[in-house]
Amino acid sequence: MIVGLGTDLVEIARIERAMKNPRFVYRILTDQEREICTTPQRVAGRWAAKEAIAKAVGLHLTWQQVEILPDEVGVPRAVIDSAYFDRRRLRLHVTISHERTHAVAVAILERNIVKAHLI
Known about the structure:
Layout: E1 2-11, H1 12-18, H2 22-28, H3 31-36, H4 40-57, E2 66-70, E3 76-80, E4 90-98, E5 102-111
Helix pairs in contact: 1-4
């Protein structure tokens, strides 16, 4: 069952300007994210995704509490490191897209429904 939805759109040029300050990337990306996000497009995509995730989840999250890495086939997978986010009951889906001038992301929060077995 879907219980949350978030989206965000960011101008890549805005992120490119912010990246001129090296502290910017260290503030918004985790160590592992910095290894794969070396272009303004990728950084903008992560920015949009983290904003979309915060909207879908409805929690105040720091940039470092959300990590988005590709799985074995390249699909972005988000992990939230917060005591207020129940990973056993909630599942997060995220997609990121880039265009020439913008990056966009959508996040969907799904609650796992456990069916009781009748004996």
